[in-house]
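task queued by scheduler; priority normal; single chain, no ligands, no partner chains; default sampling; output format set to structure tokens
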Amino acid sequence: METGFQINKVPTQFDLEKIEEWLIEEERESNEGFHCSWLEIERAFKEFSLITLNEKGSPIGFCIWSKGEISVNIDLFEIKPKFRRKGIGKLFVEKISDYFKDKGFLAIVLYCSPRESEHFWTAIGFIQFPKFRGLYSDLIFFKPLILWSIA
């Protein structure tokens, strides 16, 4: 990853506090963000299912994930507002994709929320999950972590 950015698979209490500070500020300034999901973020921290992207020792992005049988779900993903639209989110997804692939997962699955983030996910290679008889939302996306070969 570019100089200055580190993936932190076991964030510290300091990281958690910094995330909460930025989410409170984001909510206050724009009435957006994931501060409304703070209990889920704390739970993920305690269950070691929170990964942060840090710059100069402070988090600028985070991902909450959960384990499926063959896939991993991204439950929440955010980049600090002032770091958006600079390719940092894409770098973060690439690094966590490598991490999940190394753990043996075959794909990443996510529910695209807010809907406005759909462009980001498709631009970095996520594919809309096909609807089967109305069973799936049009906002479910996935990204294969391995290439399939049919001989």
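post-processing summary
- The chain has a mean pLDDT of 88.
- The beta strands are 5-8, 50-55, 58-67, 71-79, 107-111, 127-128, 140-144.
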